[in-house]
Amino acid sequence: MSETTPASTEPDKRDRFSDERIHDPEQRFSSRSIRSFVLRQGRMTVAQQRYLDEMMPLIGLPYRIAPLDLDPVFGRSAPRIVEIGFGMGETTARIAAAVPGSDFVAIEVHGPGVGNLCKLVAEAHLENVRIMQHDAVEVLRDMIPAGTLAGVHVFFPDPWHKKRHHKRRIIQPDFVALIASRLAPGGYLHCATDWEEYAHWMLEVLTAEPMLENTADGFAPRPDYRPLTKFENRGLRLGHGVWDLVFRRRPQ
Ligand SMILES: C[S@@+](CC[C@H](N)C(=O)[O-])C[C@H]1O[C@@H](n2cnc3c(N)ncnc32)[C@H](O)[C@@H]1O
Fold first, then answer.
1. What phi, psi does 250 have (nearest 5°)?
2. Bridge-partner residues for 214, per DSSP?
3. From ligand 1's centre to the CA of 13, what distance in Å?
4. Percentage of the chain with pLDDT > 70?
5. Which of 103, 183, 233, 244 has its CA 20 to 30 A from that of 70?
6. Which of 175, 186, 168, 182 is nearest to 209 (CA)?
7. Nearest CA to ligand 1 atom 10
8. Separation in Å, CA 10 to CA 7, 64, 67, 163
9. C-alpha angle 229/105/145, rounded to 5°?
10. How far away, in angstroms, is 132 Cα from ligand 1 center?
11. Residues noted as catalytic
12. Interhelix angle for 173-182 vs 136-143, to 10°?
């Protein structure tokens, strides 16, 4: 990740997504009836709740329709990586600890996962992680200035197996175009999945996005910074596959 082009903080004047938001706020993503998640109650452990209560006032970023200036948030200027749907946050915490020179904005809607990442951040004294508990589609559209991110991680998004649910998959042409618009030139989009048919769908959608170019010939080898999760390890032992995709935003 060190070779990632430093992100410019200059907003991209040609941000068709924010234009659309302004001119047609009810369209596209905001009042989306089709979301990539279903909010379940989910049981929060006592520790998760305690860490969430203690840490979110310190490292939580509220959602609002306004560009987010991350320099004052992190108290420095550094490459910024957004992670979409961090689940329980183990991978987020491990990458943030391994790459202290980058800052991570980790987005998840699921409360117990947010509490768990708060716990991991506190225990490891990580200073380069901020958490948003909100729909990542809206966060990218409404808060992340165009052309500013060094990277975006989408690890093991819900595959929505049934064909009639495929429309809920977060990797869709419109959302990939939105992600690409938020990347600085040279910034990367890294997706991973253990669902083969979704992997091919991702490859098709990412390849079709004109702002992106593939860093590999098809699927990519797993970059060293993405640690193997215990589920992935178990799957690999059982002979299941995992597919990584690493695309970059083309230079302008
Ligand atoms: C299958 S889990 C994978 C979690 C984690 N990335 C991992 O590798 O273990 C997908 C996660 O994405 C979250 N998610 C789905 N759509 C989202 C969205 N639009 N915004 C934020 N989080 C979302 C879900 O709540 C869920 O926790």
1. -65, 150
2. 247
3. 30
4. 88
5. 244
6. 175
7. 157
8. 9, 20, 11, 41
9. 135
10. 12
11. 158
12. 40
CA of 21 to the centre of ligand 1 (A): 24
Domains of the chain: 43-249 (3.40.50.150)
Q: Write the CB contacts of 22 (distance below 8 Å, at least 6 apart in sequence).
A: none
CA angle at residue 108 from 24 to 185, to 5 degrees? 65
Judging by beta carbons within 10 Å of its beta carbon (0-12, 13-18, 19+), is residue 103 exposed, middle or buried? buried
Question: What is the residue type of 159?
Answer: P
**Using one digit for the tens of pLDDT, what is the confidence trace for 124-159?**
999 999 999 999 999 999 999 999 999 999 999 999
**Around Cβ 227, how many Cβ atoms within 10 Å?**
14
pTM above 0.85, yes or no: yes
pLDDT over 80 at 110, yes or no = yes
- Across the beta sheet with 183-193, the strand order is 129-132, 103-107, 80-84, 149-155, 183-193, 243-249, 212-214
- Counting every residue, how long is the chain? 252
- What pLDDT is recorded for position 229? 85
